[in-house]
Amino acid sequence: MAPPTATPTLTLKSGTAWTDAWRRCLAVAPEAFRDDRVLNHWGAAWRADGRALAAASPVDGSPVAGPPRLDGTTAHEAVRASLDQHRAWRHVPLGERRARVAATLDALTQHRELLALLLVWEIGKPWRLARADVDRAIDGVRWYVDGIEPMVEGRVPLDGPVSNIASWNYPMSVLVHAMLVQALAGNAVIAKTPTDGGVACLTLATALAAREGVPVTLVSGSGRELSQALVRAPEIGCVSFVGGRDTGAAVATAVADLGKRHVLEQEGLNTWGIWNHTDWDALTAVVPQLFDYGKQRCTAYPRFVVQRDLFDEFLAAYLPAVRTLRVGHPLAVEHPDDPYPTPDLGPVINAAKAKELADQVAEAVDRGAVPLHRGRPSDARFLPGQDTGAYVQPVTLLDPPASSPLHHAEPFGPVDTIVLVDTEAELLAAMNASNGALVATLSTDDRATYERLAPQIRAFKVGHGTPRSRGDRDELFGGFGASWRGAFVGGDLLVKAVTRGPAGERLPGNFPEYHLMPSAA
To answer: Which residue numbers delimit the Aldehyde dehydrogenase domain (predicted)?
Structure first.
């Protein structure tokens, strides 16, 4: 018998340490970074205000820059200053706005590798996905720059700046993308840095935009303390929110009371149904992709709804695929000059989230869920002695109990759950378990069956055997039920959401008074 292969000792890829990234930030944007902290940007100036919190990288628990938290009074000053910028910017000719945003994109492109490296350290994205997040932001905004004229024809900017409050998982391709398109459409923009990570990446992106004269405001603080300024303040023209249902519900109540324009993206339990299906090779191929970024995204698919008669064939296709997934430090290599590593999964956002997921899985199993797969920690690739508290091995459970959060809510981590059904009615009920979702997929061989069942699935986008996502450029995005409040976005709808059109215009979206789907959805 051959002797066991020794596991190589790993090291950090050369030039990718947090200290390397921070040193580069100080050199590229000294106005926005100071010693060991970032600054807030408001009133067209960088300010060393706020109380900088300690923060740790999910990659290895080491210190990184924390958000400099403002109090409510200072946040109100920042909002008033943004309104002053807005009143000037809304009259800047479109050609000049295009030029300034295009110059920002050129600067982001020049520093794309640094922005991606910051995402690795701050939110644990593997290098491939960190690069993709930066590139999607740049490419997406460039599409708007090239085609903005017909989108704003007959429309005017809002009366006040757009306030952006977003989760930590896509700082560039969601938050920075939205900010730059909002500015291109004639609005000043405000963003609150996510509490859980991404502050240095966003600070660098904001610095590059501010240098080009784009009216951006970037502030940090607790959502509760700043909500009066960033959500309820009369100066705010629109609130754009990406996050969970609990926080989103509070924001929705506030904007509804005030009659304020809003775009509120909240999570739903996105499901993948299997019904009269035989193309198992296609399923095997897609399963690893569904674990991108540890399923820490609003369009992840954490729930499979499987026809009971097909369960054995489903497992034969699913389990070999999920067993290929490997967890590891996103920058750990055998030799310092090796190419970037390609782990399937890095850490989740922090050790507290890792513990929450482990506790939820343990509780679900204790109450009757059947564990079908658990990744092996011994297969993970780490640096010697590093902190691994934020890493979670992929887990698959059959039939989580109704009392478990895993039964009815998105886990936001690498945990799949499976429920079995016997009838089409049960299939639809299980796929609609969360009162609305952003995406869903139905795998069935018969196109007519898909066409008949898909309209009964309460998701904005429903794929036929293929995953759906937020999409880019002209692809529209929204949600059904409690997964979305306010105007839909994507394509020209993103511009319409942050501009005013003809009197009495009804924007496509999910509002208390009406639900209107865009014709191209």
So the answer is: 50-492
* Cα separation, 239 vs 253, whole angstroms: 12
Put simply, whether the predicted model's pTM sits higher than 0.90 gets the answer yes
Length of the chain: 521
Residues 58 and 172 in one domain: yes
Domain of residue 339 covers 271-433
Q: What is the pLDDT of residue 247?
A: 78
Choose one of 433, 460, 477: the last residue of a domain. 433
Count of the separate structural domains present in the chain: 2
Q: In angstroms, how far is CA 217 from the centroid of its own chain?
A: 20
Q: Can you tell me which residue has the tokens 């820490």?
A: 296
Work out whether the CA dihedral 358, 283, 169, 187 comes out positive or negative.
Answer: negative
pLDDT tens for 477-491 read: 999 998 999 999 999
Does residue 329 share a domain with residue 278?
yes
Look at residue 258 and tell me if it is in a domain: no
Phi-psi domain of 293 (left: phi exceeds 0; alpha: psi -120 through 50; beta: other): left
CA distance 499 to 453: 36
**CA 491, 497, 498, 499 torsion-angle sign:** positive
User: Does some domain include residue 464?
Assistant: no
Q: What is the mean pLDDT of residues 6-27?
A: 95
Q: Are residues 303 and 218 in the same domain?
A: no
Kind and range of the H or E run holding 256: helix 245-258
Give the number of other CB atoms < 10 A from CB of residue 478.
25
The whole-number pLDDT of residue 3 equals: 53
- Asked whether 329 and 18 are in contact (CB, 8 A), the reply is no
Number of H helices, E strands in the chain: 16, 27
Average pLDDT value for residue range 406-414: 94
How far is 162 from 83, CA to CA, in rounded Å? 10
**Cβ atoms of 201 and 55 closer than 8 Å:** no
| CATH, residue 328 | 3.40.309.10
**For the domain that residue 172 is a member of, what is the CATH number?**
3.40.605.10
| Residues 223 and 326 reside in one and the same domain | no
pLDDT in tens, 487-504: 999 999 999 999 999 999
- How are beta strands 484-487 and 261-266 bridged, if at all? antiparallel
DSSP symbol at 15: T
Tell me, yes or no, whether 223 and 279 share the same domain: no
Q: In sequence order, which residues have a C-beta less than 8 Å from that of residue 454 and are 6 or more positions away?
A: 442, 462, 464
